[in-house]
Amino acid sequence: MLLYTSELVAPRPNRGQGLLRFKQNINYRERLRRSFARSTIHGMQHVFQERHFWQRCLWLTIVVGAVIVGFGLYSELRHRLNEQQLVSLIETTQMPVYHIEFPAVAVCPWNHVNWQRAESAKMRFLPRHPDAELRETFHQLLIVLEQANFGNFRKAQSLAHRNLTEFKSINIMQLINYLSYRCDEIFVRDSCVFDETPYDCCKLFVPEQTEKGQCLVFNSLISDLSRKKQLTYKFYPYKLSTAGEESGLKFTLNVNHSFVRPGPSVRFGMNLMVKEPKQWSHEMVYHLYPDTENFVAVHPTVAETSENTYFMSPSKRRCYFDNEQNPYFLDNSLPYNRGNCLASCLHQVVSRICSCSTPVFLPPIEDLRQCGVTDAQCLGDNADIFSYVKTGEQDKYINDSRRGHFCDCPENCNSQQYKMTLNVRKLNYPENSTDHQIKAQVYYGQRVMTKIITKLKYTDLDLLANFGGIISLYIGASMMSFVEFFAVVGKLLWVVIKDGYAKAKGRVK
């Protein structure tokens, strides 16, 4: 029998090849000591190799304390990850403006009725040979439509006491669009210029429905005419690479007071609306007065949300991606943004209260009848509900007893925002000139813009990196140390199971 340094062996009987190895009875403590004697986890060698018991206890206390502190810090990092805090950072302040589409520009008259067509409208929309009362009621209807916009339904209440039986068949949208100003009536011929290139104004501006009624809109994608442009011209909607006066959109409007009703009526003027090309409408408008030159500088900002927030709920993220559905936005014909969501939500409120739709002002609702003259009472009585939007949790902070409607419409996660400045100066005419005009320019204030990106403040990757730093600092371990630890534990479990099985088998015999 031969004694080797690591095991007990002997020659095999009957001249067999090799050595006969004898099984050694090693207890579990000795196995642990041997396994951790060469461990890469700092301190474990001292726990099992120190000669004195108090030294082994000291090192065990140090190792356990370091592990507890390390995993305590890990739980704090895990809590930070679960908070899902968002942070908005300025990615760049030098993003060229040609990366985004030039904003849509809408020209909306203060007075929506061209009174030169009032008589022809009577012949077109009233029955043949109307009596004086019917003609007077129609005249009062046109006065109501003068300032036809969605927030001005209160004036419709004045029609409630009149006999409206003959008006049930009148299509209000067709009537309003028939009376609206046409492109060739208000634009000075050959006055439209974009990017220093002259255009036919009536090819550049197309009629389009907004919350302000029918407007003439440039660079939009809402109406069918605008969408046809995109199919035939790949660079539509237009983009612009330059900035400053004379670089963007320029146009001149004729001031024709003969279009306005004589007497104390709404005087001639225009509203200027600047919105995104795919946006239905915008509540902010600028007033363009006769005999003025108006300069609107647009300063766009691009806001994007990182895809690492996609797993978050929209209510916590406070925005919606394009493929997410907001319950308040039921219109599939428009892309999601805050303006389109508010318009769609408002139209649902109108349909719920008055059981009709107003496609002349808001995105159309399929299979729902249009509001007619006979619905004026309902629209007027509930005008305060339609004109006031309540948002979020405002009731917790504001004591507001006004009636209104609730629409939860966050921004699109990838959106554009416009900050604008308006400068106005008096328009100077040549001597003996009898012209009255309105001139306007809309242009970028700078060639570059700011891009803001919103993302998670703390991600899974940050958690992994910080956890690696913690375990390296406190216990000097790495990923291989964990592999080594679990391998040792696995071996011990296998030995325990194997020994237990052998004992059970021996008792059975």
Parts with pLDDT < 50 across at least 5 consecutive residues? 1-5
Largest sheet: 8 strands, mixed
Strand content: 15-25%
Radius of gyration based on Cα positions: 39 Å
Gap from first CA to last CA: 31 Å
Overall mean pLDDT: 83
Helix amount, in percent? 25-40%
The secondary-structure class comes to alpha+beta
How would the global form be characterised?
A: elongated
Describe, in short, the structure shown.
By secondary structure, the chain is α+β, with helices and mostly antiparallel strands. The chain is built from 15 helices and 20 strands. A hairpin with a 4-residue loop joins strand 1 (2-3) and strand 2.
What do these coordinates show?
With 509 residues, this protein is α+β, with helices and mostly antiparallel strands. 34% of the residues lie in helices and 22% in strands. The chain contains 15 helices and 20 strands. The chain has helices spanning 28-36, 44-49, 53-83, 118-125, 132-146, 172-179, 183-186, 201-204, 224-232, 314-317, 338-354, 376-381, 383-387, 460-474, 479-508, and strands at 2-3, 8-11, 19-21, 86-96, 104-109, 192-194, 197-199, 205-210, 213-218, 249-254, 270-275, 285-288, 292-305, 319-320, 389-390, 405-406, 411-412, 415-426, 437-444, 448-456. Strands 4, 6, 7, 10, 13, 18, 19 and 20 form an 8-stranded mixed beta sheet that branches. Strands 8-9-5-11-12 form a 5-stranded antiparallel beta sheet. Helix 3 runs antiparallel to helix 14 (460-474). The longest helix is centred in the first third of the chain and has 31 residues, at 53-83. Mean pLDDT is 83; it is low at 1-5.
